[in-house]
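Async update (no meeting this week)

Hi team, since we skipped the sync, here's where things stand on the single-chain job. The sequence we agreed to prioritize is pasted below, unchanged from the tracker. I ran it this morning and attached the output directly underneath so nobody has to dig for it. Comments welcome in thread, and please keep replies under the output.
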Amino acid sequence: MLYAAMTFWLLVVIFCAWGTLKLYTGLVPPRVVNSILLPGTFVAQVGRVLGLLATGGTVNDTALIRDDGSGEPKTPPNPETRIPILGPIVVALLPLIACAAAVFAVAWWQGRDVLYAIAQHPVTEQLPTSVAAGWQLLRDLLSHAELFLAEIARLDFAAWQTWLFLYLLICFTVRMAPLEGNLRGAVGATLLLGLLAAVVGKFLPAGHDLILSGSPILSFAVAVLSVLLLISLVVRGTVALVKLLANGG
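Output:
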């Protein structure tokens, strides 16, 4: 059940990041949004390039921002690698892993207390198997969001390091969203990764502990993205309401 739960939470991270990104690109030109998220885009692209090189693929047609006016990162889908099955998984997941590593580094640098607080309340290791458990899962997500905001409120907002920490945190967590054209591949790769993790955890003594070691940063990413998604929904709803009232609707 642990491996299924970790896979579920990875999918939650992917879809929360993807949803947040889509909400803002629906309000602001994608070129502006992607320019703001440039540090995260860079880390994600580096992860993808490393994945291609490690699996014998060819790096081509890669750019941080397209020159066609769309402002989207340039990442051709369906990368060809020399390692069947495992190669595409590595290429699809390394951008996510690279951004997660960047989130951990930034949190360790400036938000260590926030990371510790979230780590004390990790995401559940059980999948919801009933309606009541599903509602409890939603309550847990809101509790994670509340805890994250409470810990952020303790930071020193008079220091520039705090603002840089929050900016980089947003960039790296939102860029956990799959790069353009890779959503289906990332979801499929996540499911296959969960299966491989279950096999590794069953046959390798240290496999179980290795999976558990990623729980703190996964819980931290879930908390951050829960807050960002809620804020994005409120902003998107407010803008839509203002437009409706302005147009006499």
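Quick observations from my side:
The CA atoms of residues 5 and 126 lie 6 Å apart.
The chain has one domain: 2-241.
Reply here if anything looks off.
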